[in-house]
Amino acid sequence: MIKIAYSDRYLLDLPKDHKFPIQKYALIKDQLLYEGTIEEANLYDTGLCTEEQVLAVHTQEYWHKIKSLTLDVHEVRRIGLPLNQRLVDRSLSSSCGTLKAAVHALEDGISLNIAGGTHHAFTYKGEGFCVLNDLAIAACHLLQNQLASKILVVDLDVHQGNGTAEIFQNNSQVFTFSMHGADNYPLKKEVSDLDIPLKAYTTDSTYLQILRETLPKLIEEQKPDFIFYQSGVDVLDTDKLGKLALTRQGCRTRDQTVLELCAKKQIPVAVAMGGGYSERMADIVEAHCNTFRVAFDIFG
């Protein structure tokens, strides 16, 4: 059975006009249950990451500021979310969801987190709605417990995975691949092991051609025994922050391309949701739900 991480701790009390669509997480879960793609038995509560797991990635100074709620006004503004205990718990829960998804994927081939993909969190700072880097925390857990020896991060969010790139810049056991909009946040990009910056308004055909030419070769060259997939849907043409032009079907085909490769190569994969900022909430939820539908079609 495919296991899916979800927690009510994912939800924050944000103003209605806030850019971060916090309500999408519950809506994704509810839609998948309503249509029968998943059952309650697929879902489990994430729990919280331990301090030890956080400190395997983030600096002691940064973590102390988070847990003691003492980030300064500039650090809070850079993250873009109100700093309170609810945010701390959400960050620990979301990170634990991806960590547990990784462990479940070792058994079941795939596991998904209805959250996560917080790839703008660095070792020493957070930004872009990201406090802790769930992908890095999960990857370090696998490596430290000898559950994987070579990890590939496939980051297809529209924004570069700058925090993940910084965290693993000197770690040969983790290969970071980010395919993102060139003219988009963050303005100052970090250096991933492989970056593919895309021109504004790149369409389905170009995007999918590049992905199909790149990812199989990358897997063949790096020979990962585990993959983390950051499946942000801010690549959609409807996205307010994205600047790319994928259709919803193109985004679904992107997910299918990645997950079919994982299944074919028998490489366990943990999936985190990443971003999505379309004007209509229905566009965000439907695109994220497609990721789960594809996963169940291939692995279910």
What Rg do the Cα atoms give?
A: 17 Å
Query: Could you describe the largest sheet, including whether it forms a barrel?
Result: 8 strands, parallel
Strand-and-helix sequence, N→C?
A: EHEHHHHEHEHEEHEHEH
Query: What is the residue-mean pLDDT, rounded to a whole number?
Result: 97
Strand tally is 8
Report the span from N to C terminus.
7 Å
Structure annotation, total helices: 10
- Helix fraction by DSSP (H/I, runs of at least 4): 40-55%
Choose one word for the global shape. globular
CATH homology group:
Histone deacetylase domain
Keywords: Hydrolase
InterPro entries: HDAC_classIV, HDACs, His_deacetylse_dom, His_deacetylse_dom_sf, Ureohydrolase_dom_sf
Family: Belongs to the histone deacetylase family.
Domain Histone deacetylase: 18-290
Describe the fold and architecture:
This protein is α/β, with parallel strands linked by helices. The chain has one domain (21-299): Histone deacetylase domain (Arginase, Chain A, 3-Layer(aba) Sandwich). The protein has 10 helices and 8 strands. It has helices at 24-35, 51-55, 60-67, 73-79, 85-108, 134-144, 162-167, 204-222, 248-265, 281-299; strands at residues 4-5, 43-44, 110-113, 151-155, 174-181, 194-198, 226-230, 269-272. The protein has an 8-stranded parallel β-sheet, sandwiched between helices. The protein starts with a strand and ends with a helix.
